[in-house]
Write a structure and sequence with these properties.
The chain is mainly beta. The chain is 5% helix and 41% strand.
């Protein structure tokens, strides 16, 4: 089994590409093709980096397992290099070329290009010399065979005369294979126990059967009917069913020991498939039978605020480092939600031992705990990402804003659990470290409506009206608590903004908030003492507010009169009618729309037309209506109150 240190040394040997894989009788490579001119000489530096050659750049390098099963690196003589790309300035393609690289040290090499002073999008790919892209070269043929790839966008219109490439396997599709040598490192599998090895999805625990869509399903599990050898065998005894495997680092290799009683023990490790390589690792399997797992370490949590201001949840991202013994069957994760009695403002620090956890649980009868295990994956209420299955080291949960939580984790197998490990606050791969004494994130919402529901305007308009905070004993400052400062708030009457108050709570909000629950604040205004009696009759329209004009086929118009709330339209001559509304003096409705329905069925809508609040004329085609009577209903609203008035449109021929 290789350690990560050895893996990096191995992958650093990718630099041998530039020592033995390149023609040493050449000192430079001159590449010419469409869009390349001799007016610019550019040095192109190429390097491989151990971490990037194995792990995608989104991986959390500091949290990976201590040991990893990884394919052997390519020897330098095994690869050829190719250049292709696009002249973005002239929108032309650079003809793909095989290139020669001159080595400068054990990890890097250079080429020299005579290239135009343009903006370039360039690619350098390394391909297996025994499986080279077919002629004529195209970018698609090169990428299909590539085992390493680097991409750079370079603006060479100024003084820049170097381009730096880093070659990685990220995103490539050339499949790899597995043919490993497994053995028990000197111990003997007890009689009556069966052994099974396989490659699995680390999140779902499902066996990976299809790796390449062009191939039939290949079973990756392989049972050892005889006792697994005590020493490394001379040839592969695990071949993953012969399947070609898509390259990647998100695979889990698991060896399962099963007794006749059904009791199971596991050894697992991350396995990495590099493009175009066969994983021929020799793997020593330790004895895990009847051994409880060792507890994980470095258990930490960070937060990710919601993307939507209306959400009531945020993401808590938990990470841990699995034990080097790697014998867990799954992890058990316990989450406590603290219930806070109204009379008790006590705040506990994060527990670090079982006794402190028990004290915290007993603190309030309102505190509840939930335990999650191997079935956590895609839990219907709380799961965001990650898994508690063997080999995993992350789990992201959806937690309620405005609550306090604690958490702990332990490893479990059929011999029992490890000790509990308690969470600490620290930045995680994507999450920010909490600054509270509990896992807490709450929302302060500044409402832009007053106590009566009337809308307000805020200046500047881009001022945040939703903030997220961790509980803070010194308090979080309320935005301009006394109505003064760089922010201005106005209601519809331009009354003076005086302060904030809690939603549905009397009294002025404090200058700083020291709580942990969500807080919604509404503005309080001082205004002159005028009183207006609301009179519905002032807002109701009638037929006198509606003018109707018909348009004939020859585009001439004819005024149509409304008599006893009915207008007659002869579609033998009239093809469309235009309704024009006159709102009562001084009134602009918040919304207005028209529905047209048969009078015999109010649900049988024929037309449904929105009317702009200020553009009050609109045209309706009536040529396709049947002779009948229709309700034309005008729906309009203002200040949260809704009104309607109707006329009958009688269609005749």
């Amino acid at each position: 089994m290789r350690t990560i240190k050895n893996v990096l040394i191995l992958i650093i040997s990718l630099g041998v590409f530039f020592l033995t894989g390149c023609n040493h009788n050449a000192t430079t490579a001159t590449v010419k093709g469409e869009g390349i001119t001799a007016d610019k000489k550019v040095t192109v530096n190429i390097s491989t980096k151990g971490d990037y050659s194995i792990f995608p750049k989104t991986q959390n390098y500091g949290n990976r397992s201590a040991r990893t099963i990884v394919s052997d690196a390519y020897e330098g003589s095994e690869v050829k290099f190719y250049l292709f790309g696009t002249n973005k300035t002239k929108n032309t393609e650079l003809t793909p070329k095989e290139i020669t690289v001159t080595s400068t040290d054990a990890r890097t090499g250079t080429i020299n290009l005579e290239i135009g002073s343009y903006v370039w999008n360039l690619f350098i790919a390394a391909c297996d010399a025994e499986d080279r892209p077919a002629e004529p070269l195209t970018s698609e043929r090169i990428l299909a065979k590539a085992v390493l790839l680097g991409e750079v966008t370079a603006d060479l219109r100024g003084d820049k005369d170097t381009i730096d490439f880093i070659l990685t396997p990220d995103g490539l599709t050339k499949t790899g294979t597995v043919g490993m040598k497994l053995y028990t490192d000197g111990w003997t599998v007890p009689a009556g126990w069966s052994v099974k090895a396989g490659i699995y999805d680390p999140d779902t625990g499902t066996e990976l059967k299809t790796f390449d869509a062009t191939l039939a399903d290949k079973v990756t599990e392989q049972s050892f009917t005889d006792t697994m050898p005590n020493a490394a065998p001379g040839s592969a005894n695990y071949t993953a069913g012969g399947a070609n495997i898509k390259p990647g680092s998100n695979y889990q290799f698991i060896v399962e020991f099963t007794a006749a009683s059904g009791k199971k023990y596991y050894y697992s490790d991350k396995i990495i498939i590099l493009p175009g390589k066969g994983n021929t690792s020799t793997v020593a399997i330790p004895n895990t039978i009847d051994l409880p797992p060792t507890a994980p370490t470095d258990f930490k949590v960070g937060y990710i605020d919601p993307a939507n201001a209306t959400s009531e949840f945020y993401t808590a991202e938990f990470e841990w480092v699995r034990s080097s013994t790697k014998t867990e069957k799954y992890y058990e994760f316990e989450l406590a939600k603290l219930g806070v009695p109204a009379s008790d403002s006590n705040v506990y620090a994060l527990p670090t031992a079982d006794s402190a956890w028990d004290t915290m649980i007993a603190w309030s009868s309102l505190t509840t705990t939930e335990t999650y295990d191997q079935n956590f994956y895609k839990h219907p209420y709380i799961w965001v990402a990650g898994s508690l299955l063997k080999g995993n080291q992350t789990a992201s949960l959806k937690l309620n804003l405005g609550n306090r939580y604690f958490a702990r984790i332990r490893a479990v197998n059929d011999a029992g659990p490890s000790e509990w490990v308690y969470v600490a606050f620290a930045a995680t791969t994507n999450g920010t470290a909490f600054t509270s004494t509990t896992i807490n994130r709450y929302k302060i919402k500044y409402s832009l409506k007053d106590a009566y529901g009337n809308p307000c305007t805020i200046t500047p308009a881009d001022t945040s009206v939703v903030e997220y905070h961790c509980e803070n004993s010194t308090g979080v400052a309320i935005m301009c608590p006394d109505g003064s400062g760089s922010i201005t708030l106005k209601d519809a009457t331009d009354a003076v903004w005086t302060n904030w108050q809690g939603y549905n709570e009397p009294g002025v909000a404090p200058a700083a908030y020291t709580g942990f629950e969500n807080l919604e604040l509404i503005p309080v205004f001082a205004a002159a003492g005028t009183i207006t009696i609301y009179n519905d009759a002032d807002y109701v329209m009638n037929s006198s507010n509606i003018a109707i004009v018909g348009t004939k086929a020859d585009s001439t118009t004819q005024a149509l009169s409304i008599t006893n709330d009915m207008v007659e339209v002869d579609i033998g001559t009239i093809k469309s009618v235009t309704f024009t509304l006159t709102y009562p003096t001084g009134i602009v409705y918040d919304s207005c729309y028209l529905t047209l329905a048969k009078t015999t069925s109010v649900d049988s809508y024929i037309r449904n037309i929105n009317i702009n609040k200020t553009t009050l004329s609109f045209e309706m085609d009536v040529s396709d209506l049947y002779s009948s009577k229709y309700w034309a209903t005008f729906h309009y609203s203002i200040n949260g109150r809704n009104y309607t008035n109707q006329i009958i449109v009688s269609i005749v021929e």
